[in-house]
From TrEMBL:
It holds the Pfam family Bac_transf. This is Sugar transferase involved in LPS biosynthesis (Colanic, teichoic acid). Belongs to the bacterial sugar transferase family. Residues 262-442 form the Bacterial sugar transferase domain. Keywords: Membrane, Transferase, Transmembrane, Transmembrane helix. GO terms for molecular function: phosphotransferase activity, for other substituted phosphate groups. The chain crosses the membrane at residues 12-34, 54-71, 83-106, 112-137, 267-288. The keyword Membrane applies. Signal peptide: none annotated. The keyword Transmembrane applies.
Length: 461
C-alpha cells in the first residue's frame, strides 16, 4: 500500500470515528433528557422498563444518523465548519421535532404538550452547541494531521475561475503548479510525479482520456470538470449479455409511478405551504404595496417541461418598470432596481412563496431546474444548444442547481447541475433536495446577483 492509499485510509477512519463520536454525544444528550424528563411525562403504569428506554435511545440514534446523512453533515474534515454545523443543527432540529410528535402520541395528554415542547427546545439548543464543539475541534484536528494534497492544474483553452474557487479552500486544496494540455503526454506524465493529485480543467475529451489513463497508471487522484455527455452517461447500466462490455443509457427520466408520486407530493406540499405561509404572504403583500403603491405580485413568462410557457408568480422585489426598456436581464450585484423590502424578501426567499400556487396548479414542481425566461433561454442556447435539455423535466421551486449552486453561478455550471438532476431524478432525491433547501435559506452567497453585464458571458461548451 503506497503513502497515498495509507493517507486516504486514515482520512476515512478519522471521519468515521468523528461521526461516531458526534452521534454518541447526541444520543447521550437525548438519553440524559429521556431519563431526567421525557420518561416522566408518560403514565406511571405504561412507563417503559429498562429495555424500552434503550429502544427509545436507539431509535433516536438511528433517526439522527439518517437525518444528518441526508444533510451531508458527516463530511467532517472536508466540509466548511459553518456549513457542517448549520447542516447538523438543522438536522437535529428536525429530529427533535419528530421526537416531539412521538412523545405527544405516547403521553396522549394535551396538557403536557407545552412542557414537552419546552424540553425539546432545550434539547435542540444543547444539540446545536454540541455539534458545533465536536465538529469544530474534529475539523481543526483533521486539518492539522492531514495537510491538503498538492495539485497540478492541467488547463485547456478556456479560462474559468475554478482554480480560484479551489484555492479559497486552502485547507483542502493546494494547486501549486500548472501545465497546458497541449504539452506532449510524456511531459505531462513526467510532471505528475511531483504532485499528489491532478485537476483536469476543461480539457478536450481525447486528451483528457490520455491523462486519466496516465494518472491511473501512476496512482494519482484526479479531479476533472465533466462534459455534458459525462453527466448523461453517469447513470448508465451494465448490459451483461455478451462478452463485449456494453452500457445502456435509457434517457427516459422518471417512470410513471414515480411521476405520479411526485405530482401527489407537489399538491400536498404546495397546499400545506400555502396554508402555513399565508400570514407571511399577506404581510409581505401589504408592505410591498405601501412602499411605492405598486402591485405586490408580478407575473412573468417562464418555461417548464417541453419548453411550455406559463406565468410564474413572485412577490415584486424591484421597482416598478424595472425592465421598461424591454430587455430581459438578470439581477446584478448591488442592483439599484431592487427595493429595500426586495433585498430582504430575496435574501429570505419570501419572494418565491407565491410559486406554491404555480406548483399546486401543475405549472411547475417543488423540485426541478430553475424556470428561466424564454428570452434568456434563447440567448444561452446560441452559445450552448444543450441548455434546452433542462426542459426535459418540469421546472421547480428548488432543485440541484438551487441547492449546490448560487444565483450567480455561470449558466454552463447551472446546466451541468440541472443535468445531474435530470439524469438521476427520483422521489428520494427530491426529498433530499427539499430538506437541503432548508440549509440554503441560511446561506447568504446563494442569493448573490450576477456581475454587471453578465448573461451568457461565462457560458462554455
Amino acid at each position: 500500500m503506497n503513502n497515498t492509499n495509507t493517507t486516504e485510509t486514515n482520512k476515512k477512519l478519522f471521519r468515521f470515528v468523528s461521526s461516531v463520536v458526534l452521534v454518541v454525544v447526541l444520543a447521550t444528550l437525548f438519553g440524559v433528557m429521556w431519563y431526567m424528563r421525557f420518561q416522566y411525562l408518560m403514565n406511571p403504569y405504561t412507563r417503559f422498563l429498562g429495555k424500552g428506554n434503550y429502544l427509545m435511545i436507539a431509535l433516536y440514534m438511528v433517526i439522527t444518523i439518517l437525518m444528518i446523512n441526508t444533510f451531508k453533515g458527516f463530511d467532517i474534515g472536508t466540509g466548511r465548519i459553518s456549513i457542517l454545523t448549520m447542516s447538523q443543527a438543522i438536522a437535529m432540529g428536525l429530529v427533535n421535532v419528530l421526537e416531539f410528535f412521538i412523545l405527544i402520541l405516547m403521553t396522549r395528554i394535551k396538557a403536557l404538550m407545552w412542557i414537552t415542547l419546552a424540553y425539546v427546545i432545550v434539547l435542540t439548543v444543547v444539540d446545536a452547541v454540541a455539534v458545533l464543539l465536536v465538529t469544530y475541534f474534529s475539523t481543526k484536528f483533521y486539518r492539522m494531521i492531514f495537510p491538503p494534497f498538492s495539485i497540478l492544474n492541467i488547463f485547456g483553452g478556456y479560462e474559468n475561475d475554478l482554480v480560484w474557487k479551489m484555492n479559497q479552500r486552502a485547507d483542502k486544496y493546494s494547486i501549486t503548479g500548472e501545465i497546458s494540455c497541449r504539452e506532449p503526454i510524456e511531459k505531462i506524465t513526467k510532471e505528475l510525479e511531483n504532485y499528489d493529485a491532478v485537476l483536469i480543467n476543461d480539457v478536450p475529451a481525447e486528451t483528457r482520456n490520455d491523462i486519466v489513463k496516465a494518472c491511473f497508471a501512476t496512482g494519482k487522484r484526479v479531479y476533472f470538470t465533466p462534459k455534458i455527455s459525462d453527466i448523461l452517461i453517469k447513470g448508465s447500466e451494465e448490459v451483461n449479455l455478451f462478452d463485449t462490455p456494453l452500457y445502456l443509457c435509457k434517457n427516459t427520466g422518471m417512470d410513471g409511478i414515480s411521476a405520479a408520486i411526485k405530482r401527489a407530493g407537489d399538491i400536498l406540499i404546495s397546499g400545506i405551504g400555502i396554508i402555513l405561509t399565508s400570514p407571511i404572504m399577506i404581510v409581505t403583500a401589504i408592505l410591498i404595496h405601501r412602499y411605492d403603491g405598486g402591485p405586490a405580485l408580478y407575473k412573468q413568462t417562464r418555461c417548464t417541461i417541453g419548453g411550455k410557457e406559463y406565468k410564474i408568480m413572485k412577490f415584486r422585489s424591484m421597482i416598478m418598470d424595472a425592465e421598461k426598456d424591454g430587455k430581459a436581464r438578470l439581477a446584478s450585484v448591488n442592483d439599484d432596481r431592487i427595493t429595500p423590502i426586495g433585498h430582504f424578501i430575496r435574501a429570505t426567499r419570501i419572494d418565491e412563496l407565491p410559486q406554491f400556487f404555480n406548483i399546486f396548479f401543475g405549472d411547475m414542481s417543488v423540485v426541478g431546474p430553475r424556470p428561466e425566461r424564454p428570452e434568456i433561454i434563447a440567448e444561452y442556447v446560441k452559445e450552448v444548444p444543450e441548455f434546452a435539455f433542462r426542459t426535459h423535466v418540469k421546472a421547480g421551486l428548488t432543485g440541484y442547481a438551487q441547492v449546490y449552486g448560487k444565483y450567480n453561478t455561470t449558466s454552463y455550471d447551472k446546466l451541468k447541475l440541472d443535468m445531474i438532476y435530470c439524469e438521476k431524478c427520483s422521489v428520494l432525491l427530491d426529498i433530499q433536495l427539499i430538506l437541503m433547501t432548508l440549509r440554503v435559506i441560511f446561506t447568504k452567497d446563494a442569493t448573490e446577483g450576477v456581475a454587471e453585464g453578465e448573461t451568457n458571458a461565462n457560458v462554455h461548451k
